[in-house]
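This part of the workshop introduces the protein records we will be handling. A record pairs a protein's sequence with a compact description of its fold. Comparing a sequence with its tokens is the quickest way to learn the format. The record below serves as our worked example for the rest of this section:
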Amino acid sequence: MNADLHCHSSLSDGTLEPEALAARAKANGVELWSLTDHDEIAGQRRAREAAAELGLPYLTGTEISVSFAGTTVHVIGLGFDADDTALAAGLAATRGGRGPRALEMGEALARVGIRGAYEGALKFAGNPELVSRTHFARFLVEQGVCADMQEVFRRFLVEGKPGFVPHRWARLGDAARWITEAGGIAVIAHPARYRLTPTEDYALFVEFKAHGGRGVEVVTGAHSAADAQRYAGTAREFGLLASRGSDFHSPEESRIDLGGLPLLPEGLTPVWEALAARIHLPH
């Protein structure tokens, strides 16, 4: 199935409205879609209603930032009850640290001669609670400081560079619990992206499964074919469900468009099979 269960709207760090994403997914042949904004579920009703109007099956989604082994790891939640109060409270607490962090990033960039970065980033953020490194990067590209987003991150926004400010996110167990208790399935997003040692990578999945996590994103925009095979192996080893999503943010910035991914490797159980009862089908 051409399922795309990972993308972002203007309510987090994407550039398109939920309705435009739904239309793009449908036009690109997506057969099951989920909007997974960072630490936010405010766009869920709009996404679900837009999908329904287009005849596109839909799963609720979000992407939660967690801290693990000194690294920020992302956990996707799929198929949860979007009205669950504990999940909403957990996401609000996670978002709460982004505002002060963004102010610190602006101050850090000012110290190396880039003034007005916080205000500039705010212009690109549809949701002031969710000002992120991506919004700062868009401002620096607009100002001509860097040629593209990759250069901004490389020069300014990763650990050890002038604009990097760490943030303490939710704990892995908290994120898995919020999703699971809201009726959903927790999935480790794009695991090949994290700079974890093999031992830390293994420990991540051991701990994740112990907290009730049930899935891993095998095919995603940041994964090579070799990465997909590696994490297909992880799915088999840990008995995890396999997920698939482009991590689409913007027509100009994303490597893979909605619906443009290769299929899951054979021999895996897709996460959507376990969520069949949670899929919002068009009327």
Q: What stands out?
A: The chain has a mean pLDDT of 95. The chain is about 40% helix and 15% strand.
